[in-house]
Amino acid sequence: MASVTLSPVRLAPARTARTARTARTDRTAQIARTDRARREASGSYRLTARGRAVALGASVAALATIVVGAGQMVEASSVAANGTEPSVVVVQSGDTLWGIAQEIAPGADPRSLVQQIREVNDLGNRAIVPGQSILVPMAG
Q1: CA–CA separation, 106 vs 100, rounded Å?
Q2: How many CA atoms does the CB half-sphere of 109 hold within 13 Å?
């Protein structure tokens, strides 16, 4: 009889639940690293909901600062233009700029005061209406 030699057979180790989980975790980490590297290379990042809220809040605060600053500049320029601080007058029915100017400076020519009121309130040639609030330079 002839002798038969058998070569050893190598069997792959059985995959356990733990090695499968480790492989999955390694793959997820590799994808995350690749995705992060791609974002860094392209220079683009995602903005989270919290980041968008912070950006919106900062934008609103900056806009409010600009509006308040512009309002203070307008007020300061109207004070500097004639040396006196303007007061607010609410236009009543039947009021005219001429009549308001005569009430403020009864002894003076109202034409220059009417022009100042038009300039301070940016009225141009528009008429005033009852209930409208206008800035009026005080005669000093």
Answers
A1: 10
A2: 3
Residues 31-70, buried b or exposed e (16+ Cβ, 10 A)?
Answer: eeeeeeeeeeeeeeeeeeeeeeeeeeeeeeeeeeeeeeee
Q: Where are the alpha helices (DSSP H) in the chain?
A: 17-42, 49-82, 97-104, 110-120
Whole-model pTM: value is 0.40
Calculate mean pLDDT across residues 16-39.
72
Q: How confident is the model at residue 72 (pLDDT cuts 50, 70, 90)?
A: confident
Question: Nearest 10 degrees: CA dihedral of 89, 90, 93, 94?
Answer: 20
CA 87, CA 140: separation in Å to the nearest integer? 12
